[in-house]
């Protein structure tokens, strides 16, 4: 960890680290707070890829417009030389604040450019490190607390296991769960009900495409998943799960129930998934559903009995079945 020097300026600030979610959150906090106090007309955003330090210096010499302060936010880091930051600090207007936001490694792994090193000497620093498992659990608990929600420890671990380490995605789930669980502790059962696994999210996307009547696009999407590392076996299981949920939704729709939250509670499924599949289930023709299910059942039976080869070493026949299953929606 680099040492912050006492000569750090309160006019230049540096948010840096590999944690993109933290960087975005900090930048949003800065700009939102500033706009509330000084107005958006005194906020300037600069893309470092399209600017030089000379451009930044010129903007920093401008006085605020009918307000006490002006904020210049630089996304990234321009190419520069030693002394560029010091020169800006010397020439910038006394009521201008300069904020750099840079996605970069920190600590021993840092490979900082000359201007970045100079910022560590002259700016006020906010580091955004990657979170290890323990820090992720702490952050999740704190995020719930910020939403005035209580969460039991086992539910915190289950949420992390279900969603993965994408903080932006976890934050969305926490915000949704907090609203649903107002006035009570968030438990494992709530996580299981409300949080989608990665496979479920892919199924929703696939269902959206099929529901729009675009099986050819759905085929392209399926092969994109395969290219990303989805195994054919996992994809087939996800497809069968999707069909089972569609059957349940269609049954409730025929019975007059179209509220995704009510259906989700009855079949113990994620309401967001129900919402994604509901439009297709509403207009689903029984004959079409029977054709789709007949093919899927016959294919799955063939896989289990050895009629079709579906091993990791020889997935060709399973891949063909997946393609034909998608095309059965036509």
Quickly describe the structure:
The protein has 15 helices and five strands.
How would you characterize this protein structure?
It is a single chain. By secondary structure, the chain is α/β, with parallel strands linked by helices. The protein folds into three domains: 9-127, 3-Layer(aba) Sandwich (Rossmann fold); 133-194, Helicase, Ruva Protein, domain 3 (Orthogonal Bundle), CATH 1.10.8; 198-327, Zinc Finger, Delta Prime, domain 3 (Up-down Bundle). Helix content is 58%, strand content 10%. It is built from 15 helices and five strands. A five-stranded parallel beta sheet has the order 2-3-4-1-5, sandwiched between helices.
What is the H/E order? EHEHEHEHEHHHHHHHHHHH
Shape: elongated
Rg result = 26 Å
Mean pLDDT: 87
- What is the strand content? 5-15%
Helical proportion, percent range: 55-70%
For the biggest sheet, the summary is: 5 strands, parallel
What is the level-2 CATH architecture name of the largest domain?
Answer: Up-down Bundle
Instruction: Give the C-level CATH assignment of the largest domain.
Output: Mainly Alpha
């Amino acid at each position: 960890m680099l040492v912050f020097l006492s000569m750090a300026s309160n006019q230049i600030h540096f948010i840096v680290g590999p944690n993109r979610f933290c960087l975005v959150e900090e930048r949003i906090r800065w700009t939102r707070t500033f706009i509330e106090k000084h107005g958006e007309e005194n906020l300037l955003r600069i893309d470092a890829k399209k600017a030089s330090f000379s451009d930044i210096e010129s903007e920093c010499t401008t006085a605020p417009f009918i307000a006490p302060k002006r904020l210049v936010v630089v996304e990234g880091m321009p190419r520069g030389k030693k002394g560029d930051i010091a020169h800006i600090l010397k020439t910038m207007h006394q009521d201008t604040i300069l904020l750099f936001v840079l996605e970069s490694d920190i600590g021993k792994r840092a490979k900082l450019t000359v201007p970045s090193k100079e910022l560590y000497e002259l700016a006020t620093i906010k580091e955004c490190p990657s979170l290890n498992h323990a820090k992720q659990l702490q952050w999740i608990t704190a995020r719930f607390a910020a939403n005035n929600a209580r969460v039991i420890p086992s539910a915190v671990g289950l949420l992390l296991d279900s969603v993965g380490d994408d903080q932006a995605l976890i934050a969305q789930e926490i915000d949704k769960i907090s609203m649903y669980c107002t006035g009570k502790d968030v438990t494992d059962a709530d996580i299981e009900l409300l949080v989608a696994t990665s496979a479920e999210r892919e199924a929703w996307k696939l269902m959206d495409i099929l529901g729009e009547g675009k099986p050819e696009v759905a085929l392209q999407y399926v092969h994109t998943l395969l290219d990303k590392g989805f195994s054919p076996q996992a994809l087939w299981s996800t497809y069968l799960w999707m069909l089972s949920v569609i059957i349940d939704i269609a049954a409730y729709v025929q019975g007059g129930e179209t509220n995704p939250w009510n259906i989700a509670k009855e079949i113990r499924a994620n309401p967001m998934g129900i919402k994604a599949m509901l439009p297709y289930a509403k207009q689903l023709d029984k004959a079409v559903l029977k054709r789709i299910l007949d093919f899927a059942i016959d294919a799955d039976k063939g896989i289990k009995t050895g009629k079709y080869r579906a091993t990791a070493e020889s997935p060709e026949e399973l891949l063909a079945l997946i393609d034909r299953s998608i095309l059965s929606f036509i």
